[in-house]
Design goal:
With 434 residues, the chain is an alpha/beta fold. The chain has three domains: 22-129, Immunoglobulin-like; 151-374, Zn-dependent exopeptidases (Aminopeptidase), CATH 3.40.630.40; 385-429, LysM domain (Membrane-bound Lytic Murein Transglycosylase D, Chain A), CATH 3.10.350.10. Helix content is 32%, strand content 24%. It has a six-stranded mixed β-sheet with strand order 11-10-12-15-13-14, sandwiched between helices. A five-stranded mixed β-sheet has the order 5-1-2-9-8, with no helix packed on it. Helix 2 (174-190) links the parallel strand 10 (151-157) and strand 11. Helix 2 packs across helix 9 (353-374) and helix 7 crosses helix 9. The longest helix is centred in the C-terminal third of the chain and has 22 residues, at 353-374. The chain is elongated, with a radius of gyration of 27 Å.
Length: 434
């Protein structure tokens, strides 16, 4: 009996010694975004922490229990973001206090992340710009949006910040490649009359999948295109793919693999949102209308045709998968896998600025083809003359209903004397209201 008690005491003492080992902050990384800053502490183990703010001047205090700072901290640049200066000191001989001198008022949020893939334990501090202080409260006006004359195209470069995405054998990071392609597409769209690009991510910072959708909707996007360059467990996998949202099972094993990979972004670069009410509502409530799915499929087909000219295709048809980033309920949305970064030959192409521009040009061709038939009413593109290629089964009545013009105007515009149409011929569609 005494031996049993002694063993229990010994186990208890060993456990106390183990718990007494301090947690080391091995490194700190900062990712400034336009309206927020993310600070990541790389830890040797889990840590208890607390934080509070001080004002005049603005400061954030972070207290870590039984923790210490490593001798050297890398990758911490304070030129951008909300942090002006950082300092730290020991408290109670075993705790650590970190003080962030801030450039302005923030709303802080913190969470702990367990090890995942190449990451160990992490403490994440998010500093969201607080623009509510020292501002008068004004009554909210009714949301009377005036239709922009330009079509708004939301360009989403996947991953970013603490989430590098897929990695190539030569160390190419997906987040870097897709941002370059996205910026090429942005530059091309700026040159197109009647089109306006909106970059979801313009720099190297992390945005949750839900935030990406929210940004697109905030700018009243008419189209959402998410750009990726993923990896597969088979290095021979190659070619471009275009995906739309699937309300059921993914259309192939690769589609499911990529969907799982992309949907883990919130876990890699931030906190998993699986248990959050807002995202549950998005996942569980069927918000996506059939018309949006159909529009997305048409857009995806046009972009796939453009990509066919600059790269081989992984599949010759549009694929479907459960990507969270495509869950905008009223915006045609597609996800483009430009290539497999895990394929050495395609990784080499993805590193080439010339090939990046070709991919952007191919996507633009698909976008333009889509808007030739689907420009929103009231936009500059809708006021331009449209064209329709006759396919088997087309009738003048069907075409007139589709473009909301009269059969008589179709006849007069195209010099038609009867209702006979020839497959392959091009019909000019008169401008609505002219």
């Amino acid at each position: 009996m005494r031996i049993g008690v002694a063993m229990m005491l010994m186990i208890s003492m060993l456990s106390a010694v183990a718990q007494a080992a301090p947690v080391t902050i091995n490194n700190m990384r900062m990712w400034p975004a336009p309206d927020s800053t993310r600070l990541v502490f790389d830890l040797s183990g889990p840590v208890e922490h607390a934080l509070f703010t001080l004002h005049q001047p603005e400061r954030l205090v972070i207290d870590l229990t039984n923790a210490r700072m490593a001798n050297q901290v890398r990758d911490l640049t304070l030129a951008q973001g909300h942090v002006r200066q950082m300092r730290y000191a020991s408290r109670n001989s075993h705790d650590l206090r970190v003080v962030l001198d801030l450039k302005g008022a923030v709303r802080p949020k913190s969470f702990i992340l367990k090890p995942h893939r190449e990451y160990g334990h992490r403490l994440v501090i998010d500093l969201q710009e607080d623009d509510s202080r020292d501002k008068p409260v004004v009554a909210k006006e009714a949301n009377t949006r005036t239709r922009s004359k330009d079509v708004i195209i939301a360009i989403d470069a996947g991953h970013g910040g603490d989430d590098p995405g897929a990695l190539g054998r030569r160390g190419t990071r997906e987040k870097d490649v897709v941002l370059k392609i996205a910026k090429q597409l942005e530059a091309l769209i700026k040159k197109e009359p009647g089109m306006k690009p909106v970059m979801i991510r313009s720099g190297d910072y992390f945005l949750s999948l839900k935030k990406r959708v929210d940004v697109a909707r905030k700018h009243h996007a008419d189209l959402f295109i998410s750009i990726h360059a993923d990896a597969f467990n088979n290095p021979r996998a190659h070619g471009s793919s275009v995906y739309i949202l699937s309300e059921g099972k993914s259309s192939s094993d690769v589609a499911q693999f990529l969907a799982d990979s992309e949907n883990n972004s919130d876990l890699i670069g931030g906190v998993s949102l699986d248990d959050k009410d807002e995202l549950l509502k998005m996942v569980l409530v069927d918000m996506v209308q059939n018309t949006t799915i159909e529009d997305s499929h048409e857009l995806a087909g046009n972009v796939l045709s453009g990509l066919r000219r600059v790269n081989s295709l992984h599949k010759n048809h549009v694929e479907q998968a459960g990507f969270r980033v495509l869950k905008a309920p009223d915006v045609p949305s597609i996800l483009v896998e430009t290539a497999f970064i895990s394929n050495p030959a395609e990784e080499k192409k993805l590193r080439s600025p010339a090939h990046q521009k070709k991919l952007a040009q191919a996507m633009l061709q698909g976008i333009k083809a889509y808007f030739r038939k689907n420009a929103p009413e009231g936009t500059t593109l809708a006021m331009q003359e449209r064209r329709h290629r006759i396919v088997r089964g087309d009738t003048l009545i069907d075409i007139a209903e589709r473009y909301q013009v009269s059969v008589g105007r179709l006849r007069r515009t195209n010099g038609l004397r009867g209702d006979v149409l020839r497959v392959g011929e091009i019909l000019r569609i008169p401008v609505t209201g002219s």
